[in-house]
Amino acid sequence: MSDGQIAHPLETDRPTPFDPPLELRRRPPLSRLAYPDGHLGWVATGYSVTRAILADPRFSTRRELLHQPVGRDRAIEEPTPAEPGIFPHMDPPEHTRFRRLLSHHFGPRRVAELMPAIRRYTAEALDGMAGADSPIDLVASFAMPIPALVICELLGVRAEDRQRIQAATSVMNDLDSRPDQVFEAVMSITGTVRGALAGPSGDGLLAHAAATGELDEEELTNLGMVLLATGHLPTSSMLALGAFVLLTDPGQRARLAADPEPAVEELLRYLSILQFDVRRTALVDVEIDGHVIAAGETVVLALPVANRDPARFPDPDTLDVTRSATGHLAFGHGVHQCLGQHLARAELRVALTALFERFPDLRLAVPAAEVPTRDRMAVYGVDRLPVALPERGA
Ligand code: HEM
């Protein structure tokens, strides 16, 4: 954590880079948590209580009601209602209107259509790695570009803009970013989306959404921003962290190759990268698990801990890619459950299997403890992942 900041329970030590903060593991399923702005809120760490809160319409995601559990200048958290189009911060029925409009763009059929693009971008990334000298940063060469290119393709945004988008979403995800930096990042993405809407964006999602006539320009622009931001960083983080854990565990790697579908589910459960930012505020007093969450109190849903609940997943700290991890909460649950989950699963399956098929001898280029982790990011992951390929011609 950065200098001068007070250690927060959400940011204490992890036994390994793949484990959630220890302090949270020791807590009961639902407990009090002091937020940096002075709010005395809650944190849910048990599987059943977390799932129940996510499914409960008495809890809201409205931004003006949410307290921030960790980091970030309070100025960013000004209590303003969601901007038009920023549907993750809306409750039904406003939220439902957007989900209805978007669901078929992220359904299994659309994902099947995108498979050739996912394979092509993966092959290009791997070709780039094959030609590079070791050590290679797997984040920059593999984990970042594939999801960024795929979401650009889906939305109809020019692929040339992807680097700008990557940089901007990293700033938005960093809890230590200053308000002016976040503003600049938002402006940068908004500019890209406006470009896509103004230009001949072809048959991407944004052009289709515009053609329905159901959204005004501001809604469309903000919608594009949300989808660009949510559509690539979590998948990039999962690709990098997934590759990292598999590099440390050759046995699990071999099993992934044999049966990728359950393996990806287990990686999602085990790594659960959305760590601090899944939050809800009670709209009325809610009695749950022997406690009363009072109206106005915010709960952090600690998905990484809920997914390690031994009452739901036996031997939860063991990565076992052959287990059935279905029912995990890595994509959330309820009406806000991840819109892009089919797409994310497809990207993880294709890219992780192709990586180890193409480079069976890939190895970490530094000791695992030296890989820099992103402890203070809403989306957990690694900043860099130095890997080495066997010497060419060796
Ligand atoms: C929501 C995780 C990839 C778009 C969520 C939520 C989680 C999540 C936990 C629920 C947040 C909440 O309840 O407050 C992940 C993970 C991913 C991933 C782990 C990758 C492995 C994607 C992709 C997209 C996407 C590829 C594509 C655009 C969204 C959107 C929401 C969302 C738009 C908000 C949904 C709503 O509020 O209705 N994601 N996500 N995600 N995700 Fe993902």
From TrEMBL:
The keyword Signal does not apply. Residues 10-26 have a biased composition (Basic and acidic residues). It comes from the Bacteria. Keywords: Heme, Iron, Metal-binding, Monooxygenase, Oxidoreductase. InterPro entries: Cyt_P450, Cyt_P450_B, Cyt_P450_CS, Cyt_P450_sf. Residues 1-26 are annotated as: Disordered. One of its GO terms (molecular function) is heme binding. Belongs to the cytochrome P450 family. This is Cytochrome P450. It comes from Nonomuraea solani.
